[in-house]
Write a structure and sequence with these properties.
The protein is of the alpha/beta class. Helices cover 34% and strands 23% of the residues. It has one domain. It has an 8-stranded mixed sheet with strand order 3-2-1-7-6-8-9-12, with helices on both faces.
Amino acid sequence: MKSTSAVVAAALLLGGCATTTPLMPTPTLYQGAQATPIFTDVRPNQQKPYVELFYVTDRTPKSPPDLAEPYIADRARSVAFGIVRVNIGQNESWEELVAKSKSGERASLDLSLGPAKELGRFPGIVYDLVPASGGVTRAPEVVDTHEKAVATFMSELARRIADSPRKEVVIFVHGYHDTFAEAAFSMGQLCHFLGREFVCAMFSWPAGGNKGILFGYNEDRESGEYAVEHLKKTIRMIADTPGIQKIHVLAHSRGTDVTTSALSLLNIEAYTTRRTFAERFKIANIVLMAPDMDFDVAAAKIFAVVSDPDLPYGNAPEPHLVIPTPPMRITLYVSPTDKALTASQFLFGSMIRLGRLQASELGP
């Protein structure tokens, strides 16, 4: 992933959960005499006034269907996936869109949500069990439905990888109180200003309830915990999709807790099968923006394998195992003056939120 990618992400998201829909200001690295080139490798079928995202969600579909907000904040008992468009501007030509996107003084380009097309849905949890000799087994029809959903998921993703300049997936996990549409707008802008070189995806969990600041935050927090297993399975399926070389995970606010929890479980899974995390799941970058997590909780999750020498490595623990340095990077974007994280720190009695960390508080 280009070194500028995380900078673009941070510029968009660190100010908090956006509620407006104009396209973000042109990042400064794309302006001026020393501007970083952008939109130089966009294939003809991607030269459109919109970006198309691959999405995974455990939100409930809105009923009746709503183009502007296809999924609501309620939890679904099953995980769906599909594609959704984020429109940029008012039918500008590709040349006009590129020129405006690179201009530091451009007129506003408004965002709007295009059709969301659900391509598949997994069985509802908990998967049904049936009696079997000596115990129980997963119901055959549930396994069949699951396997068909996995095949459709991978087929769609593989098709997009084959048509992408870079055989890499960038997946975004949004934060507290974001709606499905707001998450799509965030990822749509990221995808656009990453030069449309990657397969762009988002995981949208059931955030954005209407129970006020305190109770709404607590509701979102538990919905995030609910979503961890679904994100874990999503990343595993992406990694197992033929043709994918790298995965980059971007997470914001409360989405960082969902993300680190899922990645911690995958790290343990990789370790117990005697493989490195980066090798097994093709993770190249993990970018945590304004992470709304207690520092100790974050450390316990991120370094779970390191801190558990009794964890089986294959059939038995290997406490003195030399773990290869992974070819991946974890990047934190922090601000000691972040007011939202200050409130969260007070609410949960944290010593320090990860997103307010200062370099002086870390050892070598």
